[in-house]
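Morning, I've got a small favour to ask if you have a moment. I'm working through a protein record and want to make sense of it properly. The fold is given in discrete form, as structure tokens running alongside the sequence. Can you walk me through what the tokens say about the fold? Thanks so much in advance, here it is:
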Amino acid sequence: MKFGRFTFDNHIYNGVIEEEIINIIEGNPMSDWSYTNSKVSIHDVEFLAPITPKNVIGIGANYVKDKESLPNEIPEMPVFFLKPSTSVIGPNEPVVIPDQLEEVKFESELAIVIGKEAKHIQKENALEYVFGYTVGNDVTAPQFFHNDGHWTLGKSFDTFTPLGPTIETELDPYNVHVTATVNGVEKQNSPTEWMIVPIKEMIAYLSTVMTLHPGDVILTGSPIGAHFVGTDDVITCSIKEIGSLTNTFSRKSTHISVTQQ
């Protein structure tokens, strides 16, 4: 099932997407919801980030170039980082390059949406705590990484976490490809089986450090091929089973206010 969050007639709605029709729902998609009698065309709406997470957690350097390069053991302490909720935007919203920089990096990723509270869980049960999956772009300014390896500032600028376009609840996360194009030219294309820290291990490990809450988003790492981009570059991050997330990199924001529904 695909869930989307979108604006229509200057209001925000949630809906279930069936091909080119959205069935508008009421309630929380992750808990208690029901269909309304309203339907709209996907061509008549503007998709937003499908979730407004309180916490966004990313993992660094989590892909190898091919299956043969996978290590025999996962790292004892994987490199994780946090991104603020203020960095989250949706499809077609501009990624704003900081005034101090000429360019930043794009990073196409599979994003996990947590569906129920998880604390000290076993990896065998990890997927039971997942609501669904979306596409993320972990935009990064490595020039703001601290010399000692702290990544927070370089990951935290406003607009640096595009998410969308939908949340797919029926997905085998071990059997999808993460891709990206820059101005129509493919730059990334890797299967998720090339992750160094697999998804179940990732969720279980994080749950030993912090309580994961419904709506939290985990960015699972970006394939080889990410690079610097600049003003007016158009990046499309895609996972075929979920959809495509397109954002243009800009020097100024053009956010539009809408009324909460």
